[in-house]
Amino acid sequence: MKKTVCLLGSPRPKGNSTAIAKHFCESVEKLGGEVAIFSLNKLIYRGCQACMTCKTKLDRCVLKDDLTEVLDAIREADILVLATPTYFADVSSQLKSFIDRTYSYLVPDYLTNPNPSRLSPGKKLIFIQTQAQPDENQFDDIFSRYDYFFKWYGFNDNVLIRACGVRDTGEAETREDLMKLAEDTAEKVMG
Fold this sequence. Notes:
The chain is α/β, with parallel strands linked by helices. The protein has helices at about 15-30, 55, 65-75, 95-100, 140-150, 175-190; strands spanning about 5-10, 35-40, 80-85, 125-130, 160-165. It has six helices and five strands, in the order E-H-E-H-H-E-H-E-H-E-H. It is globular, with a radius of gyration of 16 Å. The N and C termini lie close together (about 10 Å). The relative contact order is 0.20.
């Protein structure tokens, strides 16, 4: 059974990125997958402290907070879903703080090591990005930046589900093309 960890990066519990992510996760469950969903805005955690303990004394982040369980769950997951609205041309601050903590997944000599990750290879990343801006050329660099880093962790064949021009709560749910894309993506990664 494939395990999926879904991180909701929106501060809005019924936001558009959340709606797409939940539809994806429901599709995964219908296909026999196991899903754990974490709403980052409900967790209490700090960003990376640049203490370097994960490179000198431990093979994981030294901080003990609500992200500890999330970081551990991802170690066991086959699929990671990162869902975020676009705020000021980037991911939400909730998601960015999480991403900074993934630094602990890298081995101490990650810059020169041909296997820079502490995670097992072959994981899949589903990146869900929503934005109120309807112009697809705006903010089209966000996924590529994070895809680059997650490939260091062993996430390959990563998929972007992107919704442009969705602002108000519920808009994404009315878009049949987005809901179908979430279903099709679930079928692809579960296949």
